[in-house]
Amino acid sequence: MAPLRFAANLDWLFLERPALPERLEAAARAGFRAAEVPGPYGWCPGLLRGAADRAGLDLVLINTPPGDEDKGEKGLGAVPGRQAAFREGLALAVKYAKSLGCPRIHLMAGRVPAGTERAAMALEMEATFIENLRYAADILAQEDVMGLLEPMNSRITDPRYFLTTPHQAAAILEKVGRPNLRLQLDIFHCQIMDGNLTQNLEMYFPLIGHIQVGQVPGRHEPDSPGEVNFPYLFQLLESLGYEGYVGCEYSPQGDTLEGLGWLHAYWESRGRQQRRC
């Protein structure tokens, strides 16, 4: 069984360094060989690509732009009336992905519009999402880029986010019917919404294109106190033959480096001591 490959999410880790290029360098020095850069849009893509190349890092995931954050938007994929803005954001994301050499884009679904009820908007939002995903899949196929759908929990993180469970995401993926769209499964969100992690991983494994981790309920390091047995889950993913990346999307309890003991222990247990993952 091949060991897992981990990627540092630089919206969450190495925030001791204020600038994104510095975080790329810090992640590489900590042993990572890959990074997620969810929101690269405030930086010149060429500058980021140069920093990543110098650090020896692959950039493996970005998000589509969130939309108008001042108005509370968090993605546009499923938001009725925002199709044109979604397409503009997708074009920008594709431009960045090509420049960064990034093979995955998280197509953010967005929130149930303020002043409306989830149940009343569900069918219209799903139809909008399917329309936008089919458009995105055709664009991404031309660039050999994978599109990802990430369910986010509505119990702790975001009560108004539209896409909340792997079951909902899988049903939408089936309706869209495009092979270059996959499931982005964050263990933190999945545990909060549904639990039953073993069966969920096994059931949705054929759809999974990316995985992220964070302990529950605090969303800290995988070895921090919490509900999830990550050593077991890592072994399960190995046994399933998972070949993608595991994104480290959690809030360190203190200094990022000091909190990486769990990762060093994993590397050492897989015979990778003193080597970068």
Q: Would you write up a description of this structure?
A:
The chain is an alpha/beta fold and 277 residues long. Helices cover 40% and strands 13% of the residues. It is built from nine helices and eight strands. It has helices spanning 20-29, 45-55, 83-100, 118-143, 166-176, 187-193, 197-204, 230-240, 261-269; strands spanning 5-9, 34-36, 58-63, 104-106, 146-149, 181-186, 208-213, 245-248. An eight-stranded parallel barrel has the order 1-2-3-4-5-6-7-8, surrounded by six helices. Helix 1 (20-29) runs parallel beside helix 2 and helix 7 (197-204) runs parallel beside helix 8. The longest helix has 26 residues, at 118-143. The protein is globular, with a radius of gyration of 18 Å. The protein starts with a strand and ends in an 8-residue tail after the last helix. The mean pLDDT is 97.
Helix and strand topology:
Elements: E1 5-9, H1 20-29, E2 34-36, H2 45-55, E3 58-63, H3 83-100, E4 104-106, H4 118-143, E5 146-149, H5 166-176, E6 181-186, H6 187-193, H7 197-204, E7 208-213, H8 230-240, E8 245-248, H9 261-269
Parallel strand pairs: 1-2, 1-8, 2-3, 3-4, 4-5, 5-6, 6-7, 7-8
Helix pairs in contact: 1-2, 3-4, 4-5, 7-8
Largest sheet: 8 strands, parallel, barrel
Oligomer: single chain
How many β strands by DSSP? 8
Order of helices and strands: EHEHEHEHEHEHHEHEH
Radius of gyration: 18 Å
**Strand coverage percent:** 5-15%
Q: Which word captures the global form? A: globular
Portion in helices: 40-55%
Work out the helix count.
9
Structural class: alpha/beta
Mean pLDDT: 97
How far is the N terminus from the C terminus? 15 Å
Stretches where pLDDT is under 50 for at least 5 consecutive residues are none
Give the strand order, joined by hyphens, for the main sheet: 1-2-3-4-5-6-7-8
